[in-house]
Design goal:
This protein is 82% helix and 0% strand. The chain is mainly α and 498 residues long. It folds into two domains: 425 residues, no CATH class; 56 residues, no CATH class. Helix 1 packs antiparallel against helix 12, helix 3 packs antiparallel against helix 4 and helix 7 runs parallel beside helix 9.
Length: 498
């Protein structure tokens, strides 16, 4: 876990710099210069691209994690692995970009009444699918080579800076709405090229391959695994985008824009988990290849605990300051309609960061197909809850539907993990964390409230963070965290000692 902690810290530092840029962009630039309809439009285009890109990968991203150990051999240039990694998603892009173009008429019928503007920019999604597909594939290949910092820099900082520049150009009327959409799409093209060049420089990227190396049993395993992943991606991506697409079709792009801003606030909760999972996944894949369930499950406990710890603290700080945030951001009164979206999506993200590594373990085991038996049922639940709750509670109803679907999905997933690979993420540290979170929430209720939202937010956050840090250390929730705290305190003492 020491390697995981060190690599995760590097990745998390970059990620949070990017999150800060994203926070400034979303909270102070986008809300000031873009109308909710513009925000909804760019978000729907991006989410449509992501959904089809997940399918176009043909399971490549997960296959890289699972099967790279079987090909890994630097002297033999990984036995042509890079060639197959490029070929598979290329075939996928040909298939699913064609499918997207073919589906224009039924999609037009779905969005024409409330969100006809999206149809005007329909074909911009096609190149975005290609860019997002290979951006993800190259990032995963960098991850399995234990390089996560630069891919994080590319995704979390460079992309956000380019989007910030695009929004500013639009806000100052240098470009029009066409330029805004083009800027978003081109941003991901630039990011894809950047990470590709990085992979060429730092990893083995030979196109030489030997088909005979992939023996029949391994070939069948790869094809079967990829097929299951394609079907799983169909369910997973549809489920993840249901709320936004149903809001767009039923309420319109303006409501989708308000939902997007609120969703972004809650999405901050999962940021640390990206780095932790990225560096932990290859270790889990190697352990499961050797059928070392003890190591894999010990990793699961630690990953789950640390993701809950960080995500839970962020959620509390976010929720206790939610009114301050809306009071500070431009046009906050408009976006305050998404307050309960933040709460319900925040809960969903907490469930996700706590249990999602269990899905990683399952995907690397022989039980990777489990979700196929459940995924279409959960999609049905998602559609039904959105259909029932959006007319009653609007965008808050969509967020609640997401929480219900997320809770059900991860509960079943954890049952499978427990039964099949004996994985249990819970420990005494989990109970201690829940107690700390409840105590911090109670302390917030008795804190003095300042009229100035900046002063109130900063004072409230500092007090709760300090109290939380003391409780974490005193209750010994995580030995890794305690070691980091002790090391930090020793450095501080050393500086003052000098």
């Amino acid at each position: 876990m020491g390697v995981v902690i060190r690599q995760s810290i590097k990745g998390t530092i970059i990620t949070y710099i990017g999150a800060f840029i994203g926070f400034l962009t979303t909270m102070f630039v986008i809300t000031k210069f873009l109308q909710p309809e513009d925000i909804g439009l760019t978000k729907v285009i991006l989410e449509a691209g992501m959904m089809f890109a997940a399918l176009a990968q043909l399971g490549t991203s997960s296959s890289i994690m699972r099967f790279f150990p079987y090909f890994k051999d630097e002297k033999k240039k990984h036995n042509g692995f890079f060639f197959y990694m490029l070929l598979t998603p290329f075939i996928g892009c040909l298939l699913f970009i064609s499918l997207y173009v073919f589906l224009k008429e039924p999609i037009t019928l779905l969005f024409a009444e409330k969100s006809s503007l999206f149809i005007s920019y329909y074909y911009w999604v096609a190149p975005l699918i290609f860019f997002l597909t290979y951006l993800s594939v190259f990032e995963v290949y960098a991850n399995v080579n234990m390089r996560i910092a630069t891919p994080r820099l590319n995704r979390e900082i460079i992309i956000r800076l380019l989007i910030l520049a695009t929004c500013l150009l639009y806000g100052f009327h240098v470009i029009d709405r066409n330029g805004l959409v083009a800027g978003y799409v081109i941003t991901y093209g630039v990011a894809m090229v950047g990470i590709f060049l990085y992979v060429l420089k730092t990893s083995i990227t030979s196109l030489r391959h030997n088909v005979s190396y992939v023996a029949q049993p391994l070939r069948k395993d790869i094809l079967r695994y990829s097929l299951y992943l394609i079907i799983g991606a169909l369910g997973g991506t549809v489920l993840g985008k249901l709320d936004l697409f149903m809001i767009t079709s039923q309420l319109g792009l303006s409501y989708a824009g308000i939902f997007t801003v609120a969703f972004y606030m809650a999405a901050v909760i999962e940021i640390p988990s990206r780095s932790i999972s990225a560096i932990s996944a290859p270790i889990a894949a190697e352990a499961l290849k050797k059928c070392d369930f003890e190591t894999a499950n010990a990793l699961y406990k630690k990953v789950s605990l640390h993701q809950l710890l960080i995500g839970g603290l962020i959620f509390i700080l976010l929720w206790v300051n939610i009114d301050n945030i809306f009071a500070i951001i431009p046009n906050g009164a408009v976006y305050a309609g998404g307050k309960w979206v933040v709460f319900f999506i925040g809960l969903a993200k907490l469930i996700e960061v706590t249990l999602n590594f269990g899905g990683t373990l399952i995907s690397f085991s022989k039980y990777y197909y489990w979700s196929l038996y459940f995924v279409f049922f959960i999609i049905g639940i998602g559609i039904a809850t959105n259909y029932l709750l959006i007319p009653v509670w609007g965008i808050a109803g969509a967020a609640l539907a997401t929480t219900v679907s997320c809770l059900l999905f991860y509960s079943v997933q954890q049952w499978i993990v427990l039964k099949k690979v004996k994985g249990n993420p819970y420990s005494s540290g989990t109970l201690k964390l829940i107690a700390i979170f409840l105590l911090l929430t109670g302390i917030n209720c008795i804190l003095f409230k300042f009229d100035n939202p900046w002063i109130d937010g900063i004072s409230r956050s500092v007090i709760l963070t300090l109290v939380g840090a003391v409780l974490l250390y005193a209750l010994k929730v995580s030995e890794d965290v305690n070691n980091l705290m002790r090391a930090g305190l020793n450095k501080v003492k050393g500086l003052f000692g000098k």
